[in-house]
């Protein structure tokens, strides 16, 4: 670990003068140090990640944005413990380098698809991770039932997933992720398939929940507004092979309501990030055209 907080060098000084929501003190909860990932070999080799350095502090809400194919899901899978890093670098969790699936079970995650089981009720879907963990069914159910009101699902315990709207299904999947109480929560585009209005409501709701529970979150998105609105930090990745292009600290005050997205500070951050993201998206587009 030559440089424990490599992203700090890239950050611009906050322009708003508002105190930071999450001061960066102490060791990171998770740190990626020179992380590489290659798939295939020889002419068929794809370099998905090429020296990623990223630190996530305890309690932070970090959003990650980058062009399609830049390695976001690969990074997600690595932090979830589903994929190993190549031997060049390491993923460090609470100061300990992690190998061979060691991270599995230490992190709760919600993949892009909600993965609700059609044949299980909403309540039984919510308790799934707890049951797999060995929590007795009655106890798991009691814990889940207590969270239904907070997740806007009271009265839907015995419904089946097909009886719910898209937003409600995502809340069930999120509730399952919250119930699997881990210090780090990974969310891969949880609102990607929702209409704009539902999405905006879900973002505000997620912040309320997060402010109450204060878990550390890594949230992947394609949407710059979403990344800025939610995050303490927005991490921008380069076109493939994925590296960290920049890390923008978002000093917008919390709690954040709908009015935040029309504030001059928000618009200025968006203008800056759009330029960077568009540059990378064009590179990604060009290389896809060339191959
Ligand atoms: P993103 O989530 O940013 O769209 P991914 O992490 O899914 O990107 O993929 C990064 C690159 O790695 C892509 O070019 C993808 O085709 C490649 N890739 C991902 N997983 C595999 C795999 N299991 N085998 C081969 N190539 C893969």
TrEMBL record:
Residues 1-24 are annotated as: Disordered. The keyword tRNA processing does not apply. Keywords: ATP-binding, Hydrolase, Nucleotide-binding, Transport. Residues 30-264 form the ABC transporter domain. It comes from the Bacteria. One of its GO terms (molecular function) is ATP binding. Gene3D superfamilies: P-loop containing nucleotide triphosphate hydrolases. Pfam families: ABC_tran. It is an enzyme of class 3 (hydrolase). Belongs to the ABC transporter superfamily. This is Aliphatic sulfonates import ATP-binding protein SsuB.
């Amino acid at each position: 670990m030559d440089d424990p907080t490599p992203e700090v060098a890239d950050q611009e000084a906050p322009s708003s003068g508002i105190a930071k929501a999450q001061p960066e003190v102490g060791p990171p909860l998770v740190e990626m140090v020179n992380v590489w990932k290659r798939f295939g070999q020889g002419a068929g080799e794809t370099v998905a990640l090429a020296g990623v350095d990223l630190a996530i502090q305890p309690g932070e809400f970090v959003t990650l944005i980058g062009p399609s194919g830049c390695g976001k899901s690969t990074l997600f899978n690595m932090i979830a413990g589903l994929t190993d890093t190549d031997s060049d670098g390491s993923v460090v969790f609470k100061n300990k380098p992690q190998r061979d699936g060691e991270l599995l079970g230490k992190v709760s995650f919600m993949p892009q698809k909600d993965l609700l089981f059609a044949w299980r009720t909403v309540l039984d879907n919510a308790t799934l991770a707890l049951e797999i963990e060995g929590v007795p069914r009655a106890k798991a159910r009691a814990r889940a039932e207590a969270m239904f009101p907070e997740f806007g699902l009271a009265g839907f315990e015995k419904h089946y997933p097909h009886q719910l709207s898209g937003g409600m299904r995502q809340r069930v999947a999120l509730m399952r992720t919250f119930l699997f109480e881990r210090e780090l929560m990974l969310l891969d585009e949880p609102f990607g398939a929702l209409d704009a209005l539902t999405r905006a409501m879900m973002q505000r709701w997620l912040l309320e929940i997060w402010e109450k529970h204060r878990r550390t979150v890594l949230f992947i998105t394609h949407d710059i507004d979403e990344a800025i609105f939610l995050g303490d930090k927005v991490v921008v990745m380069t076109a493939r092979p994925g590296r960290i292009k920049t890390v923008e600290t978002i000093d917008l005050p919390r709690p954040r309501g709908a009015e935040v997205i029309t504030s001059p500070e928000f618009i200025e951050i968006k203008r800056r990030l759009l330029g960077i993201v568009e540059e990378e998206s064009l590179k990604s587009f060009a290389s896809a055209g060339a191959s």
